[in-house]
From TrEMBL:
Gene3D superfamilies: Aldolase class I
Primary site of residence: cytoplasm
Top class in the EC scheme: transferase
Pathway assignment: Cofactor biosynthesis; pyridoxine 5'-phosphate biosynthesis; pyridoxine 5'-phosphate from D-erythrose 4-phosphate: step 5/5
EC number: 2.6.99.2
Source organism of this protein record: Benzoatithermus flavus
CDD domains in the cross-refs: PNPsynthase
HAMAP family documented for this protein: PdxJ
GO molecular function, one term: pyridoxine 5'-phosphate synthase activity
Keyword Cytoplasm (UniProt): yes
Protein known as: Pyridoxine 5'-phosphate synthase
Keyword Flavoprotein carried by entry: no
Length: 256
């Protein structure tokens, strides 16, 4: 028996287009140009992370994306007064609150929503009042999902890093089971469920086959693959694998 599931959206993160630009300075490659290409190739939205140290995406990039791209923009950001103020001024379609440390290379885990205190609740409320869809980037743990609902966030994004980094076989199967259980729990308590971090052609299909997940946000792999095949082809291939995963919902005998 097939499982009914909503369409699966793809958000493409373009942080590392800006990383390449910043390595030499100047304006090339332009994240806004690549955002247009991503949307033409089938992306549903664009994601960028405006970090406190501005190591890749800059304020001007976000402002241009808001002004020039006619598609949803998902702004990843730390829970700080500065970032909440920027988001409230620009009013992107979506904001995703993530943990952030200056010394990390990339986001290393989910928010500790349970221990975040009133600052997170206040940020969620302020962003919601500004008209932004608010998501919290969390590890696939029921307690964190319950805490996300308690602070008023309508959306969670499950951190898929542990799954992607696990060795194929039993270890990865355990991580996939955690994601599936977390997605079910999120849906049961009324949260919209997204997922992302580290996904590639090799591991996205089982995640795409989780019916409660309605959006994947993928960046580093797509931008890296684009160096070999071009951004348009990299996104088209990713969408094809995602759609294959969605079709797997009609084949419950599959091991994942």
């Amino acid at each position: 028996m097939s499982i009914a599931a909503p369409p699966l959206r793809l958000g493409v993160n373009l942080d590392h287009v800006a990383t390449l630009r910043n390595a030499r300075g100047g304006a090339h490659p332009d994240p806004v140009r690549f955002a247009r290409l991503a949307l033409e190739a089938g992306a549903d939205s664009i994601t960028v992370h405006l970090r406190e140290d501005r190591r890749h995406i800059r304020d001007a990039d976000v402002e241009r994306l808001m002004a020039e791209i006619r598609a949803p923009l998902n702004l990843e950001m730390a829970v700080t007064e500065e970032m909440v103020g920027i988001a409230r001024r620009l009013r992107p379609h979506a904001t995703c609150l993530v943990p952030e440390r200056r010394q990390e290379v990339t986001t290393e885990g989910g928010l500790d929503v349970r221990g975040a205190g009133s600052a997170l609740r206040d940020a969620v409320a302020a962003l919601g009042e500004a008209g932004c869809r608010v998501s919290l980037f969390v590890d696939p743990e029921p307690a964190q999902l319950d805490a996300a609902a308690a602070v008023g966030a309508p959306v969670v994004e499950l951190h898929t890093g542990a799954y992607c980094e696990a060795r194929a076989g039993e270890a990865q199967g355990r991580e996939l089971a955690r994601l599936r259980a977390a997605a079910r729990h999120a849906a049961a308590i009324g949260l919209e469920c997204h997922a992302g971090h580290g996904l590639s052609y090799a591991d996205v299909r089982p995640v795409a086959a989780i019916p409660e997940i309605v959006e994947l946000n993928i960046g580093h792999f797509i931008v890296g693959e684009a160096l070999a095949v071009g951004l348009v082809e990299a996104i088209r291939r990713m969408r094809a694998v995602m759609e294959a995963g969605r079709r797997d919902l009609a084949r419950p005998h599959l091991p994942y």
